[in-house]
Amino acid sequence: MSEGELVAAFQGYIALTNQIFFGYVGLLSGFLVMSYLVADKISIFLASIAVGLFSLVSSTLIFGILLNRNDAEQLMALMLEQRGTGNLDLPWLGTNPPWAATTTTFLYITVTIGGYLACVAYFFYKRNSQSRGQ
């Protein structure tokens, strides 16, 4: 791949990851608002459906982020390999340390799973605390 193709592909992966991530943040926000407003007002059946759908969509988005970040990691490895052989004319391309891509992937997944768990915990907290009259 040429330098231009590497840059375009890498920027595409980063842009797609950010789009998925911010869509996920929107999903979390919507679920939190729903939890605040109606957690204690809906039946157990509807609560199960809401949490189930939230879990399904969340897992799909988290998995999409993971797959996209894995591809970006592989591309970063290719950039570092080409830089090591001296085949790149752009001196700034591939200067990130090899661990940076893996660390970023770990942070994305940690934040998304943590957000999911916090939202579900908040839903059940609001459901239980409001049903007790607090």
Features:
single chain; 134 residues; mainly alpha
Textual characterization of the structure:
- The chain has one domain (3-131).
- The protein has 134 residues and is mostly helical.
- It has helices at 3-38, 44-85, 99-131.
- The protein has 3 helices and no strands.
- The mean pLDDT is 89.
Topology at a glance:
Blueprint: H1 3-38, H2 44-85, H3 99-131
The assigned structural class equals: mainly alpha
The total count of helices amounts to 3
**Kindly state the mean pLDDT as a whole number?**
89
Q: What's the β-strand tally?
A: 0
Order of helices and strands: HHH
User: What are the low-pLDDT stretches, counting only 5+ consecutive residues below 50?
Assistant: none
For the record, the count of structural domains works out to 1
Helix content: over 70%
Estimate the strand proportion. Answer: under 5%
Backbone shape: rod-shaped
Short description:
This protein has 134 residues and is mainly alpha-helical.
